[in-house]
Model the fold of this input.
Amino acid sequence: MTAIPPSEQSGKIATISLMRRMIGLLADRVNATRFTPYNICASNRQQTKGGDRVFGRIFTKIKAGLAKTRGVFTGVVDLFTGNRRVDKAFLTQLEEQLLLADVGFAATNQIVERVRQGFLDQEVGENVKLFVQEQLRAMLSDPSAGIHYTSAGPTVVMIAGVNGSGKTTSIAKLANRLKQDGKKVLVAACDTFRAAAVEQLTVWCERTGVDIVKQQQGSDPAAVAHDACERAKARQYDVLIVDTAGRLHTQTHLMRELEKIHRIVGKQIPGAPHEVFLVLDSTTGQNAVAQAEQFKKTVHCTGIILTKLDGTAKGGAVFAIKHKVGLPVKYIGVGEGVDDLEPFDPDTFVAALFE
Ligand SMILES: Nc1nc2c(ncn2[C@@H]2O[C@H](COP(=O)(O)OP(=O)(O)OP(=O)(O)O)[C@@H](O)[C@H]2O)c(=O)[nH]1
Ligand SMILES: [Mg+2]
Done:
């Protein structure tokens, strides 16, 4: 074995002690961040009219919507109870439980490796649990939360995704939410492909009191988009939401159609579409991740609406989506009702999983 010269040895020791100090500081920061329903997500709380009470209601709703995913996450949460050390067995179990919770390989590896680096041979306590929570939260945080509104003219939000992922329902929920926020909302029924798609959106719009632009089934969706833009500009709507037909990224002609709609709204309204939300069905777990990766290659997406979280234990896929695809999750669907769409907030989401 080659002996390490004393100068190099002291350099290594200095580096290790510096790393230890940095990890200690990080752990302190984590300790300072307690995840309770009432001190998380300050921004969310400020935005709601009734303050803590309303925020508490939202938290309860998200918790209920995530019931199945929370069930799987108990496998992770339970690892932090009892007297044990951060050793190989603990790290393997942490890895297994995160994978079982659909967090995905890349995100799981990152978390396990950081726990190993920061806490190896230490007691498994509250600080390790808080560190993992912080890692999960940081993985989801994104500066581009919500909808980015244009300062001039209508903001156009285009919705895309595979068949049945929940596009139309999410549009109804989103339109309803934005209307309640005081926005003047118009919806364009650009799914002229599937039978009854226009009727489905019409029924939702009647129910929520939102205006719609539509044509016959089979007509050119780009023409509907064109009319909708004209109307949105003429009548000074704040937001135009464009529904589109479900499609696979492999259906070239349908993908071209999506590009055409994109182009048409861009010609009518500068910078449009300002947001392109890809709607993903969370019940498909890691398939949703693959779908997002494929779609992103063909369409410029700005965010994700993750639907049907209420019906699945695979909600952990949200970590994999963000980590692997890099797109922010903007809204989550937690039920079939018109009020069952919530802005995605990493603090609330992670807190709900660990409650
Ligand atoms: N439980 C639950 N069901 C949802 C949610 N979002 C949508 N759904 C249901 O999913 C089904 C499909 O929803 P749609 O909105 O029609 O889906 P779509 O993507 O527009 O479908 P196509 O237009 O056919 O491509 C409906 O039965 C919805 O009620 C959700 O967040 N939770
Ligand atoms: Mg639809």
